[in-house]
Amino acid sequence: MKKILVLGAGMVSRPLVRYLLDQPNYHVKMASRTVSKAEKIIDFHERGEALTLNASDDVALENLVSESGVAVSFLPYEYHVKVAKLCIKHKKHLMTTSYVSDEMQKLNDQAKEAGILLLNECGLDPGIDHMSAMRIIHDVEMKGGKVVSFRSTTGALPSHEANNNPFGYKFSWAPRGVLLASRNPSKWLEDGREISIPGELLFENYFLQDVPGVGTFENYPNRNSVPYKDIYGLKDATTVYRGTFRMTGWCETMRKIVALGWLSDKPVNGFSGKTYGDLTRHLIGVSSDENLPKATAAFLGLETYSAVIKRLEWLGLFSDESLPEDKDNPLDYLNVITLKKMLLGEGERDMIVMYHEIIAEYPSKKEYITSTLVDYGIPNGDSSIARTVALPVAIAVKMILEGKINIAGVHIPIIPEIYNPILDELEGMDIKFNEKTEVL
């Protein structure tokens, strides 16, 4: 019996567990702080086991790792290195869907010495974006061409028929992660120039982009794209850009939420209020007898009738709703209310849109290549974000257990022996790209 340990039972973990339980002779232990979540996913399967785990309990965590063949961490990213060190100690492979941190990369030599694979960024974005991009890049190179421009953008969105709130967004994965990503600085290459944007100005730097057959979205830069020139081997590319899609109106609204201070994860000095409206008043420094929407509009340099003010009012940032007593900072307060107001509803579908744009030069021609993935969640079933994050790493686990991946160290899925089997199997699940080539 091949033993797999799954750490965490969050919103994207179910497809991985069910995929692995469908394989013969696989036993899955799922450990979560809230065991009821794991029990619901395991659903009494004879080869599944749900356990309670506090990830801060070093002894319990090490025992679970030592008993597994492969570990998959869906824990918050700050726990991944801790788990990785235990995997190195006990010579167990580890899979995550998170970005490789500097601390994780430093474990490369130790992982190689232990003969284990620490495979990260094997989800959707990061994950499928890497794999699908590298398949095109390698194909261009095999044909004697070179990539001179690379753009890749992904959005996890409500499907168009479920896009029925003023933010144009619904959470089908952890809201706090979405909100934290809204503070990230960004950097990319544009026609040979390196462009850098501080986190607080992220949402001022978006553009509208039409994805043929899908719709028009806001596109804003995603983290630091510059390293991907080397990671993807794009030595001839003068443009390297990775972005995020959102429905129109998102960027301006989030920019104003940043300006208000609602994305701070630190307790607010001198605040003693009890409601969301109280905190907004405190953040902009107005008294309780002033009209809050009007005062907020003035603070932000907006008209009271602006769409942004209407969105903030709809969300509840001017309301008498009580702040959660178990939280102590604006970000976590915002996390609670957004999850309440912007959760994907019963029977609704989410939508994944991934769009690559590549310009390839050959000795006698130049090509513009687009590759588009559009995937929808299953009503009353797994969301698209859950499937596209969890299934690539599930397939990677199977490949490890079947001896089809034989590398050690810290890696991401950018080599053909990893990405080809994963993309091929995903196509069989109808998660596939539509590729078009136009001669320029």
Describe the structure.
This protein is α/β, with parallel strands linked by helices and 440 residues long. Helices cover 35% and strands 24% of the residues. The protein folds into three domains: 118 residues, NAD(P)-binding Rossmann-like Domain (Rossmann fold, 3-Layer(aba) Sandwich); 167 residues, Dihydrodipicolinate Reductase, domain 2; 89 residues, Domain 3, Saccharopine reductase, CATH 1.10.1870.10. The chain contains 16 helices and 16 strands.
What distance separates the N and C termini?
Answer: 54 Å
Q: Number of helical segments?
A: 16
User: Approximately what portion of the residues adopt beta-strand conformation?
Assistant: 15-25%
Unreliable stretches (pLDDT < 50, length at least 5) are none
- Look at the structure and name the CATH superfamily of the largest domain: Dihydrodipicolinate Reductase, domain 2
Radius of gyration: 23 Å
